[in-house]
Amino acid sequence: MGEKEQMTASIKTEGFAHSALPVQLINARVTYKNAPIHLLEKFTFKDADAAHRTFLEKTGLEECIIVQTCNRVEVFAAAKNADETKLLRQWAAAVGLSEKDMSGVEVSTGADAVLHLMKLASGLDSLVVGEDQILGQVRRAYEYSRSNQFAGSNLSMIFDRALKVGGKVRTATGINKGNVSVASIAVNLADEYFDDIKAKKVMLIGSGEAASLVAKVLKKRGVDFIVTSRTFERAKAFADTVAGSPLPFDTALGMFHEMDLIFVATTAPYYLVTYDRMENTIKNRKEPMMIFDLSNPRTVDEKVATIHGVKLINMDQIAELVEKNMRLRKKEVNSAEKIIQTEMRSVESMMKRMKAEPVIVSVFKSVDSIRERELRKALSMLGKETDAKEARIIEQLSYAIVEGILSTPMNYVRKEMEAGGMGNEELMKVVAKMFKYEDEKKRQ
Question: How far is CA 354 from CA 19, 24, 360, 413, 420, in A?
């Protein structure tokens, strides 16, 4: 940066301290709270890039960030004149729904939209309170939009704040402590029961959603396991898409005596693991074995629990642990909300302060144009007798005078707006009148 540019930046620092101009913030969302999963899918944008571009091109929005997960589809937007109707109409058109279908979409604006984002990033709006995954999902959505120029200074500001709050809530509270998923708790219990679960022979019976969740946890922990299903093709497809080594069902049943740990997660209407089978199995073993019945209805005979050397844990027992952990997390909600409230006060003050920026920026520009005009006159009057060094000193003096005169009253205007007093609107009118400020739209 040259010397003149540095001097120019000096005077304009006050005028552009908050580069984001006042805009309307809007959030439109469909979540698990008001739509089942099969309906949520209808609101999902299949092409996120095209959806962002279309919102910006056809609705008058200036910034846009789309957050999509299995439990929600949300659009965050900013514009000087955000139109909720246009946003919803374009959303409907993008996903092939009618405008009537959009009646269940929740909409928040201004500070309410910011508050929702902070709760979302903190895990307070999740199906599982305090879950960590949503923070990463919000961050990725933000980074995607920012890297593609869909998000500007306004949304960047509130998303930066929300992500920091989300991290702080998890660090300062226990809202994400304690497993609350059946699969995680089951694997944790097995890990506590055995000295080294990775060294044990593990079998998973089932190929549905519950089995998938267990498989993912086992895979994440680096545990090798056999997967079987009543249909070998399902077991093979499961292994290809999720994890595990597939094995035919009859073969797997004949290998029970080799297993240390068995997870049963099926929807079979009968007992897959019977008392007689397990009694015969345990006769051929010296080491204890552990069985988890994660099926609904149960597919392991409850009498198996009476067999010496077999540790049987069913869904009721795990559900108790899930509920206990959920209660502990919910106790931390108040602490999380206090952190969010503190940040919201800061954001709301900043949003009030930003209302003064169009007038303040206009004042600095107007006065700076007068400064330049008068500087040119003065240098012209001095003529050729003034060398370059003297001209720079005079120019620097002109910057200093203007900055010295304007900085105090303009900062006072900002602080008054931030304080939120009853006379703020009148104050802005007086300032605007004094400096002949006109709204940008009126000048166009």
Answer: 9, 12, 10, 11, 12
Closest CA to 357 of 417, 406, 403: 417
The enclosing H or E element of 247 equals strand 245-248
For residue 215, the enclosing domain spans 182-325
Examine the residue annotation and report whether 70 is marked as an active-site residue of this protein: yes
What are the backbone angles phi and psi of residue 13, rounded to the nearest 5°? -60, -45
As for how many domains the chain has, the answer is: 3
Structure tokens at 143: 């980074």
User: How do residues 25-59 score in pLDDT, each as one tens digit?
Assistant: 999 999 988 887 778 889 999 999 999 999 999 99
Q: Where are the alpha helices (DSSP H) in 294-356?
A: 315-331, 333-354
**Active-site residue, from 9, 39, 50, 70:** 70
State which H helix or E strand residue 377 sits in.
helix 357-382
* Residue 2 placed within a domain: no
73-85, pLDDT tens digit by residue? 999 999 988 889 9
By CB atoms closer than 10 A (0-12, 13-18, 19+), residue 308 is exposed
